[in-house]
C-alpha cells in the first residue's frame, strides 16, 4: 500500500543534492510482521547500488525506528526510503508526539539503548512534528557521494495547549524509585509485549498507550544524579533530598486514560514475571505500590477532581508464610548462612530476609531468627535510606548497577529495640541457577556504635 506523501520545505533539495532519487513509500500496519517488511524494503532498495555495502547498518537502523514506532505509537507507521547520490534518507512517521529520548540506562539493561545504536550508525538524525504525531528522520551519507543539501526541521518536545492539559499535583514523589521503576518497567513491558503479541490482537495499541503514560512521567519527573562513587552515593541518597515535596504533572487530555492501561499492563506483566514466564524479574513491592499510586493520582484527580494524596511508602512487610529459618528458595541451602560462624544476613531479589546467622542476630540485637526471616530487609534500614535501598536493589536486578556491592561500607542499621547503630558491612550479589539472585551481607565483628539518632517514628 502506498502512503500519502508528506513534504516539508526543502525536502527535494535535501534528497536530490546528489542526483537522481529512488523513493519508496509504504504504510505499515500495526503488526509485528511490519518490521520484517521494512527490512526487505531496505535490502531491495539498496541492492546493487553504491550504498549496498551499508545495507546491514541501514536494515538495523530501520528495524529499530519501525519497532519503536509500533511499540510507542501503536498505529500505522508511514515509512519513506529515499536513495540518492548523497546516500539514504529514512523518514518514519507515527501518531505519537513524544520525541525519542536517549536513556542513560546501563549497557546491561534490557532496554533503552536503541537511540545510542542509531546515533552510532547514521550521519545525522532528528524529528519534526506532523499533525498530532511526529516524523523521525535519519540520513546515512555515502562517503563517495555529495553531502545532503538543505536543513531539516527538528522537534524537542510536544507543545500542549493549556485547555488540552490536565494539571495533576503529585506530592512527596520518590525520585530515585521513579527512575528505577522507569528502567525496570520499560524492560518488563517490552518482554510482556513479545509474549502477548501472538495471542492478543490489541496488545500493540495497549502497549503504546502505556508507553505514552510512561513518557509523560519520564519527560517531567526529575532524575537525581547520585554518581557511582560509594561515598558519594551514601552521602547523597538520603531523604528528603531524593524526593520532591510537590510537582505538577501536565497530562494531555487524550492521555489521561492511558495511565489506567499502564497500571493494568504492569500488573499483568508482574504476574507473568513472578510465574517465571519473563526473563525480567519482578520488582520490589514498594516500587509496584509507587507506580500504582502514580497511575491512580492521574486517573482520579483528572476524572473526579479529588484532592491529591501524598505518596507514603508502605511499612516493611512480612511474607504470608510461616516464620522460621528455612528460606524455601529452590536450589539454595539456607544453612550456608544460618549455620555460618560469620555475621551473615541474606535477602532474596524481592528484598525479603531469607536467612541470618547467630552472629548477625547478635549484631542486630535479635535472639530468634524467626523474628527476621520473612521480613523485608528495610526493617533494619533507617527510613531516610529506604528509598535508596529499594531503588538500588531494583536497578541491580534489572541492569547490574552496583556502586556499593563488594565495598566495605559503614551504614546505620535499626536494631531490634528501635535504636540506630552504625556497622561496617560488605554486600555481595550471588546469582542462582534458577535465575533468582541472593544478596548476602557480612557484618564486621565488633560492638555496634550508637548513631545518636532517636528511634524512628512511624
Descriptive overview:
The protein has 458 residues and is an alpha+beta fold. The protein folds into three domains: 11-141, Histidine kinase-like ATPase, C-terminal domain (Heat Shock Protein 90, 2-Layer Sandwich), CATH 3.30.565; 162-303, no CATH class; 335-450, Beta-Lactamase. Helix content is 34%, strand content 21%. It is built from twelve helices and 13 strands. It has helices at residues 11-15, 33-46, 55-73, 114-121, 175-196, 203-220, 230-236, 258-274, 285-303, 335-338, 358-364, 383-399, and strands spanning 22-28, 77-84, 87-94, 124-130, 133-141, 165-174, 243-252, 344-347, 353-356, 408-414, 420-431, 437-443, 449-450. The strands form three sheets. Strands 8, 9, 10, 11, 12 and 13 form a six-stranded antiparallel β-sheet that branches. The protein has a five-stranded antiparallel β-sheet with strand order 1-2-3-5-4, with helices on one face. Helix 2 (33-46) runs antiparallel to helix 3 (55-73), helix 5 (175-196) packs across helix 8 and helix 5 packs parallel to helix 12. It is elongated and about 80 Å long. The protein starts with 10 loop residues before the first helix and ends in an 8-residue tail after the last strand. Mean pLDDT is 81; it is low at 1-19, 105-110, 320-326 and 452-458.
Amino acid at each position: 500500500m502506498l502512503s500519502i506523501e508528506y513534504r516539508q520545505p526543502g525536502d527535494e533539495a535535501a534528497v536530490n543534492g546528489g542526483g537522481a532519487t529512488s523513493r519508496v513509500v509504504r504504510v505499515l500496519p500495526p503488526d509485528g510482521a511490519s518490521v520484517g517488511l521494512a527490512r526487505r524494503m531496505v535490502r531491495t532498495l539498496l541492492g546493487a547500488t553504491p550504498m549496498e555495502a551499508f545495507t546491514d547498518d541501514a536494515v538495523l537502523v530501520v528495524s529499530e525506528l519501525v519497532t519503536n514506532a509500533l511499540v510507542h505509537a501503536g498505529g500505522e507507521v508511514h515509512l519513506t526510503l529515499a536513495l540518492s547520490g548523497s546516500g539514504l534518507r529514512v523518514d518514519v512517521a507515527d501518531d505519537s508526539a513524544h520525541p525519542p529520548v536517549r536513556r542513560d540506562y546501563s549497557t546491561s539493561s534490557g532496554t533503552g539503548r536503541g537511540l545510542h545504536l542509531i546515533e552510532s550508525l547514521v550521519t545525522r538524525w532528528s524529528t519534526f512534528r506532523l499533525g498530532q504525531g511526529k516524523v523521525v528522520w535519519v540520513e546515512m551519507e555515502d562517503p563517495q557521494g555529495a553531502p545532503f543539501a538543505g536543513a531539516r526541521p527538528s522537534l524537542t518536545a510536544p507543545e500542549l495547549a493549556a485547555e488540552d492539559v490536565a494539571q495533576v499535583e503529585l506530592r512527596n514523589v520518590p525520585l530515585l524509585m521513579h527512575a528505577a521503576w522507569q528502567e525496570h518497567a520499560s524492560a518488563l513491558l517490552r518482554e510482556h509485549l513479545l509474549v502477548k503479541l501472538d495471542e492478543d490482537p490489541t496488545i500493540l495499541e495497549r502497549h503504546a498507550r502505556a508507553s505514552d503514560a510512561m513518557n509523560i512521567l519520564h519527560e517531567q519527573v526529575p532524575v537525581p544524579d547520585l554518581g557511582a562513587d560509594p561515598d558519594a552515593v551514601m552521602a547523597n541518597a538520603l531523604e528528603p533530598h531524593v524526593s520532591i515535596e510537590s510537582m505538577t504533572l501536565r497530562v494531555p487530555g487524550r492521555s489521561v486514560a492511558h495511565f489506567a492501561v499502564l497500571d493494568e499492563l504492569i500488573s499483568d506483566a508482574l504476574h507473568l514475571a513472578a510465574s517465571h514466564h519473563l526473563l525480567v524479574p519482578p520488582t520490589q513491592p514498594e516500587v509496584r505500590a509507587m507506580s500504582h499510586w502514580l497511575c491512580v493520582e492521574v486517573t482520579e484527580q483528572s476524572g473526579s477532581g479529588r484532592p491529591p494524596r501524598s505518596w507514603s511508602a508502605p511499612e516493611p512487610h512480612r511474607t504470608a508464610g510461616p516464620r522460621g529459618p528455612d528460606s524455601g528458595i529452590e536450589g539454595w541451602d539456607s544453612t550456608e548462612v544460618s549455620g555460618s560462624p560469620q555475621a551473615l544476613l541474606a535477602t532474596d531479589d524481592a528484598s525479603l530476609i531469607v536467612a541470618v546467622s547467630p552472629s548477625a542476630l547478635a549484631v542486630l540485637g535479635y535472639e530468634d531468627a524467626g523474628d527476621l526471616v520473612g521480613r523485608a530487609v528495610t526493617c533494619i534500614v533507617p527510613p531516610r535510606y529506604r528509598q535508596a535501598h529499594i531503588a538500588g536493589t531494583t536497578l541491580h536486578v534489572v541492569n547490574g548497577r552496583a556502586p556499593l556491592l563488594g565495598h566495605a561500607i559503614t551504614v546505620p542499621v535499626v536494631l531490634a529495640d528501635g535504636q540506630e547503630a552504625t556497622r561496617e558491612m560488605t554486600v555481595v550479589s550471588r546469582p542462582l541457577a534458577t535465575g533468582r539472585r541472593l544478596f548476602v551481607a557480612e557484618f564486621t565483628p565488633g560492638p555496634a556504635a550508637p548513631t545518636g539518632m532517636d528511634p524512628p517514628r512511624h
